[in-house]
Amino acid sequence: MPEGQDRTPLYQAIHNERYSRQNLIKQIEEKTNRRLIVYFSNIFSPFGSINRNDIAPFGDLLMDINKDVDLDLLIHSGGGDIDSAEKIVFMCRNKCRGFRVIIPQYAKSAATLIALAADSIVMGYTSELGPIDPQISITLRDGKMLTRPAYSYLQGLKMIRDEIKSDPSFIQSYLPLLEQLDPALLDYCNKSIERSKRFAYKWLCQYMFKGDTKKAATAAAKLNDVDKYIMHGVVIDSKEAKTELGLEVDELSPDDLIWQAFWRLYCQYEVDTRKLGVNKIFESNKVHLTLT
Fold first, then answer.
1. What is 9-130+235-291's CATH topology?
2. pLDDT, average across residues 195-213
3. Second label for 200, Cα 20 to 30 Å away, from 107, 118, 138, 236?
4. Among 2-6, 188-192, 237-241, which range has the highest average pLDDT?
5. Are the beta carbons of 82 and 199 closer than 8 angstroms?
6. Are 55 and 49 within 8 A, CB to CB?
7. Which residue, 23, 89, 52, is CA-closest to 291?
């Protein structure tokens, strides 16, 4: 029976967006001779970040991948939990021969870290990576969550210390803030910064830079440099990723047929994610999972 004819007409119509995307995934796989899986998140949702809930869906995505296969991961994410990001890397790396990350538009923070663990990164004129300086969330007295770069907490303390040193009378103004300061938070900030650097260094050494420890250390340090990238949302485009950071980037032009296929697939996810009201879509040519 031809593919699709085993589905009833109403079922096919209800899930038409999914089957359209999966057909496009198959077409891309035929052109690249690689397997393709997709991790697409709603970057405007507070529940769209990379976290432990992603692990089981990735297990399904990778179920029929084997060591003789080259794998592409198309990712659209604003980042999230670094430990979950590394778990995803371990899972992908253990299930394939070669690993490539496709960034049609947006892969920031922990999603950038996932890209650094690939053999190469596919980017176009709409693609962007970002700095890997970790973000720390704390709960305020009113119960609201506040997220700030780890460096900001440390630099804020340094600024207070310098002002008090230059004029001890400032201590009276800063005393209420200093009394609320949690030493454990400062320790956590320092450790988070080091964790991010070690993640980048480890995987760059192992794959993209293949044992070039100096090159890996330089790239990891640059990506974590808040003087170079003063804001966490700074755009790192394909040219900067390739020339300044030395990453293995396959730059595809807008008229490249493979790029156009990736972009068409991205646009379908962008529209369907909002239409369906979901936070994430995990998809392959066979698997379809959503998190709401």
1. 2-enoyl-CoA Hydratase; Chain A, domain 1 (3.90.226)
2. 92
3. 138
4. 237-241
5. yes
6. no
7. 52
